Automatic annotation (TrEMBL), chain A:
CDD domains tied to this protein: ADF_cofilin_like
Organism: Dicentrarchus labrax
A GO biological-process term: actin filament depolymerization
One Pfam family per UniProt: Cofilin_ADF
Protein name in the entry: Cofilin 1
Keywords: Actin-binding
Transmembrane segments: none
Lineage top rank: taxon: Eukaryota
Oxidoreductase is among the record's keywords: no
GO terms of molecular function: actin binding
Cellular compartments per GO CC: actin cytoskeleton
Automatic annotation (TrEMBL), chain B:
Subunit structure: Polymerization of globular actin (G-actin) leads to a structural filament (F-actin) in the form of a two-stranded helix. Each actin can bind to 4 others.
Organism: Dicentrarchus labrax
Protein's name in the database: Actin-like 6A
UniProtKB keywords: Chromatin regulator, Neurogenesis, Nucleus, Oxidation, Transcription, Transcription regulation
Superkingdom, natural source: Eukaryota
């Protein structure tokens, strides 16, 4: 069941950029690639748009951002819903991987109206994100704080490290 | 917030009550029993039968709805449920321009910020587990049990029968004396009462039972144990006719039937599922990969779940029936309003969104497409 809320082109463009791992031409372009970004519903309740300035760029890692996962968790508003894309880097015993995770953030303390609109519009945004392997419905900080939960989602018990830190 | 002034009505019709109101409001304006009082003026002046009559054949029918109207004793007034024939009636009799149908389980899940979860709805007639995945109901996983509010009421009625206590509704009582705990009631009947029908009288008695049910019953946090129950603090309750009593073990014994029907009275050839099993069976019928998502978001709704101790007991039952690694989370709104109205509120928000206005099924579409267009546009 859908709310009729539409996904803007800029959102789809961001997704396409994050999905494709281009053989990067130069360092500059590499640094501008997004590690994580939040999406929200516009004030007029008609579209899903980019949440201004709520993003982590690859170039930030090591400089302004030390732990990308914790930084991402801090970006989420405590009392309102959001959608997010997080580009997770993790290792299993065999190999190193990068996967996009689609996150639906709906904390218990968010207003009912917000939960209702975001939940009923989730189908619209997910349909535009073709090929996403991992989706995560999160309803409280306690679900997110523990990196184990994300690690399990990505690869079960075979995941040995996440964002460079061992599990 | 939002752009246009939307004129839409939202109905959530249950077997016990109807929640109705305007889209955009945060609470239904009307919350009234799903019961119609019908007076039938027969042409030949004979007394009508007590079963549901064929409304088409009678003339001069007057309908009474809503608590205030219903509770006035009137001659020849029958009670019936309007639950049949919904949609056809709406379009053909009431000439509405457009409508939309939503599954209430999906609305309740959404209103709790979930697009995936197991909705447990325990109302008057049924306790139902409905798995919702990505905003869609998984029909094959729906599990329904008749052990719900009405079953509780029946057990309460039996308790009073055992105590040899008669249920006298307020409409009959002119005055009553104060009597000692457990003593027979002493009351005077009203003198000029109209000849009421049996269906109406039973309805009024049920209202008395339901008040007792809501005030006195409590679910034990672990399986019922007679010795533990005997230590239970008692609750004092007085019936409309003045009979009053302290209730102890019965407070726990009666609702135990919801969770463990094996010893409940009146259930023959026992194949009924307790609430815990209703949930686990439902989840068990779904794909193994989505089960953690369902157990991680068990949304508890429906008036019957408001019995004290219901959610704690359910939590315990589910933790015992699921593997230790399974993350279990029950979502049970604290306010009565949200627990009974979550589906209505969800519908109200949806129907008031500017973007939703393109989703309505118009009268014309319904005339051209019939039921199939409803199935397609309202999945």
């Amino acid at each position: 069941m859908a709310s009729g809320v539409k996904v803007t082109d800029e959102v789809i463009a961001v997704f396409n950029d994050m999905k494709v791992r281009k053989a990067q031409a130069n360092e500059d372009e590499k640094r501008k690639r997004k590690k994580a970004i939040l999406f929200c519903i516009s004030k007029d309740l008609k579209n899903i748009v980019l949440d201004e300035d709520k993003e982590i760029l690859l170039g930030d890692l090591g400089t302004t951002v030390q732990d990308p996962y914790q930084h991402f968790v801090k970006m989420l508003p405590p009392d309102d819903c959001r959608y997010a894309l997080y580009d997770a880097t993790y290792e299993t015993k065999e190999t190193k991987k990068e996967d996009l995770v689609f996150i639906f953030w709906a904390p218990e303390s968010a207003p009912l109206k917000s939960k209702m609109i975001y939940a009923s519009s989730k189908d619209a945004i997910k349909r535009k994100f073709e090929g996403i392997k991992h989706e995560w419905q999160v309803n409280g900080l306690e679900d997110l704080k523990d990196r184990h939960t994300l690690a399990e989602k990505l690869g079960g018990s075979s995941v040995v490290s996440l964002e460079g830190s061992p599990i | 917030m939002g752009t246009f002034k939307v004129g839409a009505l939202v109905f959530d019709i249950g077997s016990y009550s109807v929640r109705a109101g305007y889209a955009g409001e945060d609470c239904p304006k009307a919350d009234f029993p799903t019961v119609i009082g019908v007076t039938l003026d027969r042409e030949d002046g004979s007394t009508p039968m007590e079963t549901d009559g064929d409304k088409g054949k009678q003339s001069g029918t007057t309908y009474y709805i809503d608590t205030n109207q219903l509770r006035v004793p009137r001659e020849n007034m029958e009670v019936m449920s309007p639950l049949k024939n919904g949609m056809k009636l709406m379009f053909e009799h009431y000439n509405i321009p457009a409508f939309f149908l939503c599954k209430s389980a999906v609305l309740s899940a959404f209103a709790n910020g979930r697009s995936t979860g197991l909705v447990l709805d325990s109302g008057a007639t049924h306790t139902t587990a409905i798995p919702v995945h990505d905003g869609y109901v998984l029909q094959q996983g729906i599990v329904k049990s008749p052990l719900a509010g009405d079953f509780m009421s029946m057990q309460c009625r039996e308790l009073f029968q055992e105590l040899s206590v008669e249920i006298i509704p307020p409409y009959m009582i002119a005055s009553k004396d104060s009597v000692r705990e457990g003593s027979p009631a002493s009351w005077k009947k009203k003198e000029k009462l109209p000849q009421v029908t049996r269906s109406w009288h039973n309805y009024m008695c049920n209202c008395v039972i339901q008040d007792f049910q809501a005030s006195v019953l409590q679910v034990s946090d672990s399986p019922y144990d007679e010795q533990v129950a005997a230590q239970m603090p008692t609750v004092h309750y007085e019936l409309p006719n003045g009979y009053n009593c302290d209730f102890g073990a019965e407070r726990l014994k009666i609702p135990e039937g919801l969770f463990d029907p094996s010893n409940a009275k009146g259930l023959s050839g026992n194949t009924m599922l307790g609430v815990g099993h209703v949930v686990t069976t439902s989840v068990g019928m779904c794909d193994i990969d989505i089960r953690p998502g369902l157990y991680g978001s068990v949304v508890v709704t429906g008036g019957n779940t408001l019995i004290q101790g219901f959610t704690d007991r359910l939590n315990r039952e589910l933790s015992q029936k699921t593997p230790p690694s399974m993350r279990l989370k029950l979502i049970a709104n604290n306010t009565t309003v949200e627990r009974r109205f979550s589906a209505w509120i969800g519908g109200s928000i949806l129907a008031s969104l500017g973007t939703f206005q393109q989703m309505w099924i118009s009268k014309q579409e319904y005339e051209e497409g019939g039921k199939q267009c409803v199935d397609r546009k309202c999945p």
